[in-house]
Every structure is written in structure tokens, then in C-alpha cells.
Amino acid sequence: MKPAASTANPAERPPAHRRRGSGAPPRRAGVYLLAGVLIVGAIPVVATVRILEANAVRNERTQADSALRAQLQSALRELARVVDDASAHAGDLARSTAVQRAFFTRNRAAMRRLAARESGIAFRLDGRVVAGGAPASAIRRSVSLTLNGRRIGEILATVPLDRKLAARLRRYAPHTRGDRLVIVRRGVVIGSGQRLVNERGIVTLVDEPFRALAAQMPDSRSGRLLALRPESAINASVAPYRRRIRYAAIGSFALLVLVALVFAGPIVRMLADLRRAASQATTDSLTGIANRRTFDEELALEWRRAERIGDSLALILLDLDHFKRVNDMHGHQAGDLVLRRVAEVLGSGMRQIDLFARYGGEEFAVLVPETELDGALLLAERLRSQLAAERVELSGGHALEITASFGAAAKGSLARPEELVAAADQALYEAKRTGKNRVAPKLPATETGDGDKPAERRRAPARKKTAVKKAAAQQPKAKAPAKKRSTAKKKATPKPGGNPGAASAPSA
Questions:
Q1: Exposure on the CB side of residue 34, measured as CA atoms within 13 A
Q2: I need a surface site. Which of 28, 116, 207, 333 has the fewest CB within 10 A?
Q3: Does residue 224 or residue 365 have the better pLDDT?
Q4: H helices of 218-331, where?
């Protein structure tokens, strides 16, 4: 039993689940929709700009790589010429008579005099350099001197790897402004001592990023030739194309905004119409509460939920007392005012999980989940008291008192939602019959006299009388004299103290 569930304060008891709401106002929903359209439209524009810019940078880097590769090829060809010239010069010295005489006589002084006159030439005897210089970072070519098949010495031709060589190679390599051609040995630029940081194809030199391509130096184990192009130069080449892309993107987005603003009014009106149509389908237009269709749908949903989890479910039906008299005496506008006031008063006393609906005419229904019959009766009594304390002020200065009769029923062992509605309807009829402005539960079968069959409301007695009249009219006419004799017999024996004139009325 959950008798207190229906009387709990909505602020104290969190709802198990919420009713379906009507959503945001249509104007706000229209603004949200327009913002969504702009965002959705901006996403492909921004994505297109990013893709085009990335493609432009990729193409420019590809062109830069091609240019750097061409620079390396030209520089390596020039370097090969320099090395070949040094090697040929060493061969010419090996054929010189003075050099041969100095080696054959092992005259070191003569070797030193000859080496001093030659640049990049060194003489070696017995594996040791005895004249000239041999730098550590250089490309070397050697020519041997032999006597009777025995090597007596070597002439070394060296090409130093320095800034002068790099400048010479750069002059013979096609390049643009900002390009650099450097010789690197073990991560350090020869001639300047600057250290390179290589990360994913981007070389950082003195805090400036470069696009780089490298080539191994011939006859040099650790020396490499690097062609560099600044990333700033690549970005500067792409910048005009980027500006054109962004201008086109801004124009496209501006056009999208213009179209959205033009269609903003129709979109908002369409949303308002859709909201109005949805509200009319689920809400009573007079009172603003749920209508019969919504009530039937929610009753079916709550019934299935109660069946699934074994929860309780109660229903309250209420009917305004003497409502026809209000319409007859004060007009239908006063009746509408009464209905709206009833919806306001009773709707304020509901939980968020309860459903308050206009069932039809002056009838209302309260669907109370998670509540047994005792709790539904307590809620119905509280609503009846609130309603009885209200006064409806009319335009002519009149004040109307409002009362209603309530019938409550619980799901219990009922098999269908229709049986729950019929049970609450039977209880409401009992409240009407026993004096109105009261709450009545579903009566037991022994008191109703109809078993499990639901009682009919209001018009049932009228239908029974009509059936009796039709049966009397269809009786054979031959039995009429017997009926008259019975009547005559009654006339002959009037009751003591009765009115003789009233005996002529037939008994029903």
C-alpha cells in the first residue's frame, strides 16, 4: 500500500519520471535552428578552406623539394669538377721531374718548397705527411709514385670542406632568395659552427625552420651537403592563394547568413505552426491541460509500466456539480471561466508524475502512478477541499461556488485499462448519487449488485425506463381487460386515510 504517495509535496519527493514536455518557445527554437543551420553550413566551409590551404602548402613544398633537389644536383656536379681538377693537378705534379727527383732522393726540404707553391697539395713518405697540409674536413684524392714496382710516396690533392667551397657550389646551383647551401659534418655547419635540429623533414637553424634536402659528399664519410629553403618563404608563396581562399569562404558564409536571415521569419512561423498543431493534438484548447487523447495514451503507457514492474496505479475521475445550471444562468462564457479556474486550482496540486486531463465536458481525470486506492482517496479529498474553497468572480459582480464529485479506483487485479476507467466511473456515479461534493471509492460487487460489470452513468436509469415502456407497449392487447379489473379492484378498496382522488394513478 502507498497511501501517502499522492499527498507528497512535489518539492520534497523527486519524480520517478517526467511527463513529455512541450519544448522551448517557438522563437527560441527558431533561433536555435538558425544557429544550427549556420554551424552546419560553416563546418563544410571551414573544412574546405583547411583542405585547400593544406593542398596549397603541400604543393608548394613539393615544388620547393624539386627546386632543392635541382640545387643539390648542380652543386654535386660542380663539386665533382672541383675534385677532378684537384686530382688532375696531383697527377700533373706526379709527372713533374722536380717532384720525382725529390721523392727518389727523399729530399724533404725540396718537398716542402714544392708543396708551399701549390695550394691543397701534400706529400707523404712512408705513410706520413712530410710536406703541405691535409685538413681534417676535406675531400682527398691521392696519386702514388713507384720505383721498380715499389711505391715510394704519395701526392695528396685535398678539397677543404669550408664556407668558401659552399659559396662556390651555391653560385653554380640555381636558387631563389633565402635559399642556403651548407656543408654539415656531424650535425654542425662547417664554417659557422651552428648546430642543426632535424625533425620530420624540417631543419631548425638558429631558431628558423627550413625545408631541407641532403646529399652525401663524395669521398667524405661524415660530410653532407644540405640545400635549405625557409618555411617563411614557402608560406609567403602560399599566402596569396590562402587569401583568395579565405575571401571566397567569407563570401560563401556571408551568403549563407543572408539566406538564413531571409528564411528566418518563415522558419519561425513554421515552427510556431508545428508547435501549435502539436499542442492542439495533445492539449485541451480551453483549459491548457492534457486532452482525452493524451490521457488515453498515457494511461496505456502507465498501465504497461505498472504491469512490467509490478507497480500500483490509481485513477480519479471528477465531475463538476450543477455545471449545466452555470451555463443556463450565466452563459457559456461563465462556464468556460469556471472550467479554466478548475484546471488552474487542481493542476497546482499535482505531482510532476501525475497526469491531469480534461476527460470531456465538465469531467476531468487524474492519473496517479505509484499510488494505491487509499492514497488516491486522500488526493481526491484534498482536491475536493481546495475546489470547494474557491470562488469564481464573474463580470457582473457575481461569485460562483464550485464543487465536484470524485470517484477513485486502483488497478489492483484488473486486467485492462478500460476496467480501471469503468471502476472510477462507477465510483463517480456513486458520489453523484449519494449527494455530490464528495469522494467515493470503487464499491464492492455485493453493494453494486452488478458483479464485476461496470455501472452505467446517469443515462442508465433513463434507458431502463424506456425499455419498460417499450415492453409494455408490445404486450398483447388481450391482457388489457385483466389489468383494468385489477385497477378497478384497487379503486373499490381505498386505503384508510388516503386520498380517493390519488388512487386513479397507476402504480409504477
A1: 22
A2: 207
A3: 365
A4: 231-262, 264-282, 292-309, 323-330
How many other CB atoms are there within 10 angstroms of residue 53's CB atom?
15
Contacts of residue 425, defined as CB under 8 A and 6 or more positions apart, other chains included, come to 317, 407, 454, 455, 457
Strands (E), 426-495: 439-441
Residue 299 grid coordinates = 494511461
- In the predicted structure, residue 490 carries a pLDDT above the cut 70: no
Q: What is the grid cell recorded at 437?
A: 461534493
Who contacts 8 (Cβ-Cβ below 8 Å, separation ≥6)? 351
Residue of 298, 302, 362, 363 marked active site: 362
Q: What is the pLDDT of residues 110-150, one digit of tens each?
A: 888 888 888 888 888 887 888 887 777 788 888 888 877 78
C-alpha distances out from residue 65 to 59, 140, 210, 486, Å = 10, 30, 11, 128
For residue 412, what are the CA distances in angstroms to 296, 373, 454, 508?
Answer: 19, 9, 15, 40
More confident residue, 365 or 16: 365
The three three-digit cell numbers of residue 155, written as one number: 701526392
User: Listing from the earlier edge strand, what are the strands of the sheet with 150-160?
Assistant: 128-132, 121-125, 150-160, 138-147
Confirm whether pTM is higher than 0.70: no
Active site residue 381: no
Q: How does pLDDT run across 180-204, given as a tens digit for each residue?
A: 888 888 888 887 778 878 776 688 8
